[in-house]
Sequence to fold (455 residues):
Amino acid sequence: MPEQYSEIVEAVKNEVKQLGDNTKQILAQINTDYAELKKLVDGKVDDVLVTERIDKFATDISTRQSELDRKQTNFEKLYTERMDQLETAMKRPGGGSGKEADKEFEEARNFLIASMGLKEGAAVHGKIKGIDVNLAEYKGYKDAFETFMRSKGDERQLDPNCHKALMVGSDPDGGYTVPTAMASRIIQRMYEMDPIRQLASVESISTRSIEFMVDWDEASYGWESESVAGAETGTPKFKSKEITTFTMYAKPRATQMLIEDSGINIENWVADKVANRFGRVEGAAFVSGDGVGKPRGFLTYANGTNYGQIEQVNMGHATALTADGFIDIKYSLKEQFLGMALAWLMNRSTVAAAMKLKDGSGNYIWKPSMLASDPGSSILGIPVRMSTTMPAVAAGALSVALADWKEAYTIVDRLGITIQRDPYTVKPLVEFYTRKRVGGDVTNFEAIKIGVISA
Fold:
């Protein structure tokens, strides 16, 4: 193997080993606890203490499984990044490494596109292909941005050269576009926090909204022979779907002492605080947002099978989950959606309750993985993902969702995250007013089913 590739390959090997070492321990404990849980459930002893032990095992298992899901998500993201690096290195003429130069150029290009999108909106589309990337200008902006973040006053008190450099990324609505590395860190942390962003289709745009056609119907069909022409067929029914981006914001606060501490990476500190808030806010909107000033959640659509409706399948009991309910949901989906992107979505307490259910043959419907390479759990052979924003089990609650998420839901990110520094409003603290534009909506109503707790 050429020397320039070995560093990337070794990094992948180390990450695989680290994931495997950590995962094996957690997975072993999950399987041990699950064996104990099944013994207690199979014992059929109606005792308060036994019930408490069952509930504790189920909670512990779901907590550990959530940790495994997070580790697996992080690894998949890292693996993709490493493979992208390897592909770039292999395509480079002469085989030189140049990883830092490639990364810096890509950061500068993405930053310029984001800044242009914020300033010019739709007009930026025709300019992206021949965009002129100025690395020196971007480096100057990054240096000026760090100075801006650590300054005692606002940008008007900065050195004129620093203020001039910041104008490259100024936002007409106020504030400055965050450098690409900081924006990527925010998006990455949001990706790790809630599984919907991991599961759904994600589009990045430079305008306020995206519009596309949805094929809701199928073309008519028929037969024809050599001597008999086929009859005229109907045409598919297309629906126009527009997903608008909305602004969400966060205002993390820091002391001046923390900001002035050179040992603190202030950009990463702000990025982590912002991502935590953004992740919770958008995750809730993707599930239950009303679409007014925020993304529209999939739980807000009316029950039905027409366009603009999502079918709700009764779980078979007025206040609890049932195994038959999960079976009914699974087979209410068309065969074309029973593929690789299919996954259950529910909160941790719902998963814990599902662990105790058996099908008509006495088999538990929830199963932990036995493989460290694929540590996810499953229900009826379909992967399970946990989201804190899904409703808990209760009468009438929409507690279970099953979908081919790539088909069912689309998230739209408008390029560019902006930040304003406010050292005055909450003295002696400094407030970082950070804004990001995001939208989301259901794009295929047939690819998702909702389980409702109802008889």
